[in-house]
Amino acid sequence: MRKSRESVDRNTQYALEEAVKLVKENAKTKFDETVEIAMNLGVDPRHADQMVRGVVNLPNGSGRSVRVAVFAKGDKAEEAKAAGADIVGAEELAEDVQKGKIDFDRCIATPDMMPIVGKLGKVLGPRNLMPNPKVGTVTADVTDAVKGAKGGAVEFRVEKAGILHAGVGKASFSEDALVQNIKAFADAVAKARPSGAKGTFVKRVAISSTMGPGVKIEPSSIMPGQGG
């Protein structure tokens, strides 16, 4: 771990390609580490007009196995199962969630299920699992939503201190695949810039593997026009 840290200059902002190379070189554990991005944004998410959230389909997938739950009934429930959803249900699924039985990573709901799902806000909200039409998880098109979640759709949402982070691939991915994923993620964040954001939108960017040191990236190398 110390050797890994010594190979990275904490005060340097690297170009994206060089940063990816360093992260891959320092991912030395026996498991396939997740490559994560952290972005420090010039927003205060306590204000509604400065909230940054969205979803991005990573061109090379996320590399993680995602368990998807769908709130649906009848034909839509059958459609969700056929698309590969891991858990499908309605009232009985809501009861399980209320009891704290949450065995899934993404949650999708058809619009008619929202009166039931809406009551689960206190349980699903803090885990960032609450279905939302803005990120395509409240939809009648459950096939697309399930396949997207399984295929590498990554949701993002800025946290209290203006920090946003997400997994953008695995250390086993090629450098090119990680660069493409990171650029796609950064592009989606840029497009989600809220009307209330003033001044520099992206202040700092860093990537790391699960156990590796953080590597700072020059913001303009992933988002032209950004800096500082």
Task: Describe, in plain words, how this protein is organized in 3D.
The chain is globular. The strands form 3 sheets. The protein has a 4-stranded antiparallel β-sheet with strand order 7-1-8-9, with helices on one face. A 3-stranded parallel β-sheet has the order 4-3-5, with helices on both faces. A two-stranded antiparallel ribbon has the order 2-6. Helix 2 (16-26) crosses helix 8 and helix 3 (74-83) packs parallel to helix 7 (142-151). It is built from 8 helices and 9 strands. The model has no long low-confidence stretch (mean pLDDT 91). With 228 residues, it is of the alpha/beta class.
Tags for this entry?
single chain, 228 residues, alpha/beta, four-stranded antiparallel sheet, three-stranded parallel sheet, 8 helices, 30% helix
